Amino acid sequence: MSQSIVQIYVRLVREGVREIDSVPESIRNEVTAELAKYEGVAQTH
Amino acid sequence: MIAILHSNGLIAGFINEVTNIDGDTIHALQGGARGVGHDVIVVEGWTYGEEVISPVYEERPIIRYEDRDGQIVPVETTEQIMVTPEQRVSYITDGTATYKVGDAFAPGQFTDVRDLLPESPEQKIARLEAELAAAKEESLTAFTAIADLYEMVLKGGGGPV
Questions:
Q1: Could you tell me which residues are beta bridge partners of residue B3?
Q2: Lower Cβ count inside 10 Å, N or C end of chain B?
Q3: Which ipTM score applies to this complex?
């Protein structure tokens, strides 16, 4: 799956525009993994 | 640029070399004013000056007492009394017209050019924050549209959504 559309959903979820449950199933795992990366970065600061 | 402070059709004061106006605070190269309670017009092409009015003295008769051979006698004389101290009257002129503090003032005769003043750091931060928020909102709107389109394609293709 294109990384671009994953990043778009990551941004929408992070900004509270979309819930993770509303992300299409086909990319939900990738979006969840990317969000986990962001949370890991956020916790180090 | 010069800020003209005015109220009720009269000029209340001038602030020379204005650098910025932020709310009711006027910043100028030399000082400025905080909490300005007057209406303000910023003008360009005028020169600021101060006219010094000399103090006014009056001769007034007084009686001085002198000792003359053991006798205290009154002697009439005069002394100078300052009745009006030195005054500095601010004015602006464009070479043809001159306005002083206290003169009648018609705001419509002047063009306010405060938009030409540079931003203060606070105003710049506020503007950039507003622009950033607008850009963020705009990108989220675009991302939402792309996501909606993506989901429509998935549905149209019969794939799982």
A1: B15, B42
A2: C
A3: 0.84
